[in-house]
Design goal:
The complex is a heterodimer. Chain A is an alpha/beta fold. Chain A is built from 17 helices and 22 strands. Chain A has three domains: 239 residues, P-loop containing nucleotide triphosphate hydrolases (Rossmann fold, 3-Layer(aba) Sandwich); 164 residues, 3-Layer(aba) Sandwich (Rossmann fold); 77 residues, no CATH class. In chain A, strands 6-9-10-3-11-12 form a six-stranded mixed sheet, sandwiched between helices. In chain A, strands 18-19-20-15-21-22 form a six-stranded mixed sheet, sandwiched between helices. In chain A, strands 2-1-4-5 form a four-stranded antiparallel sheet, with helices on one face. By secondary structure, chain B is an all-alpha fold. Chain B is built from 16 helices and no strands. In chain B, helix 3 packs across helix 9. The chains are: A alpha/beta, B mainly alpha. Chains A and B meet through helix 10, helix 11 and helix 13 of A and helix 8, helix 11 and helix 12 of B.
Amino acid sequence: MAKNLLEMKHITKIFPGVKALDDVNFVVEQGEIHALVGENGAGKSTLMNVLSGIYPYGTYEGDIVYDGEVQKFTNIRDSEKKGIVIIHQELALIPEMTIAENMFLGVERGQKFNIDWDETYALASKYLKQVGLKDSPHTMIKDIGTGKQQLVEIAKALAKNAKLLILDEPTSSLNEDDSKALLDLLLSFKKQGLTSIIISHKISEISYCADTITILRDGATIESLTKGKDDITDDRIIQGMVGRKMTDRFPKRPADRRIGDVALEVRGWTTHHPVYTEKKVVDNVSFNVRKGEVVGIAGLMGAGRTELMMSVFGHSYGANTTGELYINGQKCVLNTPLEAIQHKLAYVTEDRKGNGLILSNPISVNTTLANLSDVSNKFGVIDIDKEVNVAKEYVKKLKTKCPGVMQNVGNLSGGNQQKVLLAKWMFANPDILILDEPTRGIDVGAKYEIYCIINDLVSEGKSVIMVSSELPEVLGMSDRIYIMNEGHMVGEVKASEATQESIMGTILHTKSY
Amino acid sequence: MKLKTELSKYVMVIATVLVILFFTIATGGKLLFAQNINNLIAQNAYVFVLATGMLLCILTGGNIDLSVGSIVCLVGAIGATMMVQNNVPMGISIVVMLLSGLLIGVWQGFLIAYIKVPPFICTLAGMLTWRGLSNVVLQGLTISPMPDKFLNMFNSYVGDIIPATANVNETATVVGIVICLFIILYKLKARADRTKKGYENPALRDEVITDVILIAVIMFFMIKLSLYKGIPVILIWVAVIVAIYGYITSKTTIGRHLYAVGGNQKATRLSGIDTKKVFFFAYANVAFLSGVTAMIVMARLNSANPTAGTNYEMDAIGSCFIGGASAYGGSGSVGGVMIGAILMGVLNLGMSIMGVDANWQKVVKGGVLLAAVVFDVVSKKKQD
């Protein structure tokens, strides 16, 4: 039996109010490829951040034993010195620099005040050859595709003398051929003795290359499966990832609610990445929502759900967007968020701090921002008293906890910020609300209240599209569920007929496009 | 705790009061001579107007306009050439001056909002271009004097209602009383309206305290003006402009959009607001106000010369930041900027009366500006 390169023992990491990791044990043998799987929020990234020193020693409980010694990393440089290199899902390359400059960023060759460019480029060539990349190290990063960029990241890791390579969803932005090439590369490195940890959502990839699989769920290790020893099946992995109990966390929908005609229908919707315009982020997607209906959109992070919804909401995301959009059966073209709002659409963002609220402004100002015309006269003079009253009404209606409506939104808790954001869009008086991760990062009590608000909305005959990465929430709240993966709509089921396992199975079994 | 947050809102007001007290003592009371108060207004009128325009740009996200000083010079050059050298009627000249300011603003606003040229670069280019063009128009020479009719529009004083008392201009005092009565009536009406509509009123005690202070300041000021030559016409111009923009920023949707863009541009865009239009408005407007300022400056200098308006952009930007506008945009008020401009003006005047060397005056002003911004940044950080 090979010796263990890494043992993480009893790791517990607590963020204010949340236990992200709860007594996690994680063992990686020398020379293996170890897959780490789990739902969004299961704690995979947190665990890797603890390992790489992003969360320094002392901010977590437990021990990291690496190479036979207990390690006390205080930053990412400490762990890199020991040969632990992490490649994040979002590539950390600078587009305006050459491949070689990127590879040695922070570890420049030569002296501090005299960089040895000859050595830099010679070394870069050497490592690029190892990863099978034929481009010149003088090429700009912006001129190569994401597949090659991923290889540059690996070459960069090799240049740091990596002994333990951690890849966070390395194939999420690659096509099938590039993904296969990358996995083969990892297998060939394995033969040379390199140990890797791969975080992935794709079962086919995991069974192709992994020797051991560790499943995390809700911040705890569920089990570790070893190839050849345990019986590794897809069902077992899926069961491990989602197998939590459904409890009574969702309010009952009133019985008198009626599902009516189709309110919004989208057909053949395609949009491209705003910067890398050749890349399709959403590909030929169709869906609809009826009056009085809650439609859930399930999928993993990066499935293109947010991008789809934002591009539907007045083309606020993406380039070269095509497709047809019907509201109450009428074909509409919504080119700006304003036009979308005028057609009674609302998009409640997942990123309430970045895209939703003005943190430095009071609750009252945030509440009316999307519908200022209702609190102002035809000359654009705002009735501040009326505005304050509107804000107070919504604070009462949504049970927002705050000292007063003049309080800056930045000083509220996440759950209350979310309520202000909802209030803002409810005040815009929409018929169709798109709620993107409406309960992300808020506590259970506030979640329940938001579910109640959703129920009230559909009781009034409004339509709700709920994008959520939490499967229990999607199942508990939706009437109908669409499943998205990698920019495609890969399934549609009635909520009453769906289970967490069946949805996760649909996501994981769709092939890479 | 509550007192502390209340106090932090008025930090600049308190600082200004302290600075005024300091100079009053240091100059043996000369600072508060009626004539010096009058000078404070006349010398700083251009700052008040430019800073108001600059504030709107800063609100959009800490963006500044470097070209205002050069626009002042160019518009002045155009106006003087028309009125003095070509005898074009004053009315037409004024319209042309205002239009040329607006035209420059439309051009720069278009580049910044729709072509997405960074404001710093665009207005730096403007600073060079308009300065250069004004020299071309003036052929490097100074044009003076201005027609009397034009000077009277800005430099004169409101007439005395009781000419018999030669040393006292009672108009100012009367106007002060009228303004104070108006404030009281307006506040009472607002309270009554709120009660009628079932809205909540702010605490009476708080309102009374702020109003009493406000009325005291206005009356002190007006009585001082009575003791000199009365209300300078320039004060009316400044007051009207400041009142209009104070209203726009605090009470209208346009104002709300400016703050929203600076607070969170993405959220504002997703709320259905045309953020490009907001930028366009801010930059078109500041150039328009620079055109207005050009007239004030021409009248004060009684000339148009190739170096007029030099460094005015710095005075305007400095007043905004000292007056509590955030260097990241999204917060700041016209009232605050006025306080900032007054603080700068008092520093200038006080140090001049004391005979402080002009170079040291710059050092002091630089220090005050830096301190104000450091204060803003640090207090923001604490909030996070």
